[in-house]
Amino acid sequence: MFGTLQHLIVFALSVAAFAGALWGLIDAIKYPDSTFQAAGKLNKTLWLLILGAASVVAFLALPWPLGTGGGIGGIMGIAAIVAVIVYFVDVRPKLQQFGGRNIGGHGNRSQGGW
Question: Does the pTM exceed 0.85?
Fold first, then answer.
């Protein structure tokens, strides 16, 4: 019973890591490189490479029915999770602060303060 529960937990964490990495990659694509520079972060190309690699590692770490690995608990899987967490906790909020998106022609262009 505990073995099955453990496998379900590892499977759920692995799927969540893959989904988060893919979401981060798609989200980073939406911002222009100038926003990354204005936010003082690594450039867009490097973040796309980091998140792309994290997506591949997370996919390969998925247990057998979906991927080839035994779960996200290995050193590469943990590195992928750390990269995704850094993007969502540190980089993405700064990108949003600088209003780099321009969806439908309506970006955050407010220049004024009070």
Answer: no
